[in-house]
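note to self — DONT lose this again. spent like an hour looking for the file last time. sequence + predicted structure for the chain T wanted, 286 res
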Amino acid sequence: MLSIPKIIDTHQFGRMRAGAAYYLHGTRDALIETGTSLSAPYIMDALPDDVEIDYIFVTHVHLDHAGGAGALAHRYPHASVIVHPRGRRHLIDPTRLVESVRAATGEMFSLYGEAIPIDAGRVHAADDGERFDLGNSIFIEAIYSPGHAPHHLCFFEPKGRMLYAGDAAGALRDGVLYCTTVPPSFDLELSLRTIEHLRSLRPKRIFYTHFGPGDDADRLLASYANLLKRWAEGIDTRRGQMSLPELIDDVLADTNLVPAGFDEHMRPELAMSVRGMLGYLERVAP
């Protein structure tokens, strides 16, 4: 029996279909992703009143993915919170994380809410390949997937070949892929290696945090690798030729990189992705 996830809209940044969490019902129940702390009430309202969550999986500790973990851990006191080892300390004490997000997001920071600390005994640092048993022969496997961030995990359900990709495979909005190359630690080479590793798992469907399921997973992963390369080239050819605001505007006007008529609400997020790729390029080739 396959565990078909319930998609929960997290109302990220006050918008519909911008962020998702996934509820898996089995002998043990699980959430994958938590949105921001402002998302927690939407997630709680979407879950059955009598549910007891056993696992809260977060792909990485950026606040649009893990900011709600503290509030949800408080609501579901038996849940273990599963995170990459490099992200564990930030869930226990989010002070440095919050300051990093403030520096990276600028005027968008207020949209991310707060981050509530989680008791250390409830935060589990997952090993690469570690499996978590949801019962009924359903397992969730943690996959180390650096690139978007060094503390990034994907989660794979091998029976249904379902991949919960966080930001490792980009964002899928209305069938269109967008880059998720945000500061401060995006790494193109690691991202491309991660994509090849994810392809080797032969997933059938990708469940994107931004937003929803995508079929033909191998095609989507290959397409995202190609988009990342074009994104890097487009930014690299422009850097040093214009100011940062001009560079951002020029990249976002390039329909080879961003489709014409994209939702203008996405502009601040896409601008962050320009800055993240620019930071990577300046580190590897000053």
